[in-house]
TrEMBL record:
Protein name: 6,7-dimethyl-8-ribityllumazine synthase
UniProt-annotated binding residues for 5-amino-6-(D-ribitylamino)uracil: 24, 62-64, 86-88, 119
HAMAP family xrefs: Lumazine_synth
Pfam families from the UniProt entry: DMRL_synthase
Classification via NCBIfam families: lumazine-synth
Family under the similarity heading: Belongs to the DMRL synthase family.
One Gene Ontology MF term: 6,7-dimethyl-8-ribityllumazine synthase activity
Domain of life of the source: Bacteria
InterPro entries: LS, LS/RS, LS/RS_sf
EC number, UniProt record: 2.5.1.78
Active site: 94
Organism: Synechocystis salina LEGE 00031
Length: 165
């Protein structure tokens, strides 16, 4: 029996990540981005936008995240993609449509392409809840980056399973 698991130590061949960030609710998404960058940097990833390890793609809102994420995933250039956004409930059903479609789209991309896609879109009832998850109490951006690191490492470890004979 073989056991596969991800690692958080820097690999011999550097990882390459894409971060897709929604501009809508940027007060929240910029904080998530900051937490994400801090985690990646502390794990040996060069987060400089001019560098070669992380690409940053800004989209209008969370609804647009899956379209861009799919294009990135099928390019074959990334070990993992982190999707950051914030959908905050209002007084209309708009929240349900945006949050649901973003989640379905992101899940489908990971399943269809085999590229780890991290769902970092906060879905909260209030702005206060979103801010708490983006840095006031803890920054979920850090956790999203940890998930990406672990999944990228795991997928590399499992690479021999995908080769055909």
């Amino acid at each position: 029996m073989t056991v596969y698991e991800g690692s958080f130590t820097p690999p011999a061949r550097p990882f390459r990540f894409a971060l897709v960030i929604a501009r809508f609710n940027d007060l929240v998404t910029e904080k998530l981005l900051s937490g994400c960058q801090d985690c990646l940097k502390r794990h040996g990833i060069d987060v400089d936008p001019a560098g070669t390890q992380v690409d940053y793609i800004w989209v209008p809102g969370s609804f647009e995240v899956p379209l861009v994420t799919r294009k990135l995933a099928v390019s074959g250039q990334y070990d993992a993609i982190i999707c950051l956004g914030a959908v905050i409930r209002g007084q209309t059903p708009h929240f349900d449509f945006v949050a649901g479609e973003a989640a379905k789209g992101i899940a489908a991309i990971a399943s269809q392409t085999g590229v780890p896609v991290i769902f970092g879109i906060l879905t909260t009832d209030t702005m206060q809840q979103a801010l708490e998850r983006a840095g006031i109490k803890s920054n979920h951006g850090w956790g999203y980056a940890m998930n990406a690191l672990e999944m990228a490492s795991l997928m590399r470890a499992m690479a021999p399973l995908t080769t055909t004979k």
